[in-house]
Write a structure and sequence with these properties.
This protein is mainly α. It has a single domain, classed as Up-down Bundle (Alpha-lytic protease prodomain-like). Helix content is 85%, strand content 0%. Helix 2 runs antiparallel to helix 3, helix 3 runs antiparallel to helix 6 and helix 5 runs antiparallel to helix 6.
């Protein structure tokens, strides 16, 4: 890497990349909590929507790990060196999201067939409520830095953060509905599978964006 004074533009870009590093480390920390609590609370409550939310967090955690590696490679070897690895990671992430969407559809169908409801999870509700402002903050900062350094990878990661925020909103709505319906003695077995199918739409969209982004890069 050249001395700071040798190339002011390179120095500014390196500073922006370091800022992106800090955002990704925050993402890694939060996604670890989100995946652990989401899957754990979902399994304990029999909630498919929480399990799907936690599983999506695992995929985003892997994506953030790849982006941290890619940013580190750029600092050491230049922007173009990690392009091929980025394309491969995008395809893997897209495939995992499609697989998760298929699982959620099958599991939701089974829950509808058996009319198996889910118990209310206060931990899951607290997690999803906290995720909304956190994801909003991370997405805004990532989008700004992605525009400044012209990074497709960081821009895609910002979209994943936005999607995670919407997923959290769906989880909040589903858990709130289950809580209210349980208090008025109205059957709420249908809430969890219905909310899970709403999540599928976001999973498929996110998967298509990851896959098409990789194909776009192939043309560069």
């Amino acid at each position: 890497m050249p001395p700071v004074g040798a190339n002011p533009q390179a120095a500014v870009r390196a500073d922006r990349v370091r800022q992106a590093f800090r955002l990704e480390f925050l993402t890694l920390a939060w996604m670890t909590v989100e995946a652990a609590v989401g899957i754990g609370a979902g399994l304990a409550a029999g909630s498919l929507v929480l399990v799907a939310f936690g599983a999506d967090s695992l995929i985003e955690l892997a994506s953030a790990c790849v982006l941290v590696w890619r940013l580190n490679v750029e600092l050491r070897h230049g922007e173009e060196f990690a392009e091929s690895a980025e394309r491969l990671a995008a395809r893997i992430g897209g495939a995992l999201l499609f697989a998760l969407a298929a699982y959620v559809v099958i599991a939701a169908g089974w829950k509808v067939w058996t009319r198996a409801g889910a118990e209310f999870s206060s931990g899951g509700l607290a997690l999803s409520v906290a995720a909304i402002p956190i994801m909003y903050f991370l997405a805004r900062r990532k989008q700004r830095l992605a525009d400044e350094i012209g990074s497709r990878a960081l821009r895609a990661d910002a979209v994943e953060s936005i999607t995670c925020g919407w997923l959290a909103f769906i989880v909040v709505a589903a858990l709130a509905a289950e809580f209210v319906l349980a208090r008025v003695a109205v059957p709420a077995w249908w809430v969890d599978p219905l909310a899970s199918l709403a999540i599928v739409w976001f999973l498929v969209r996110e998967g298509r964006e990851a896959w098409s982004g990789a194909e776009c890069c192939d043309d560069d």
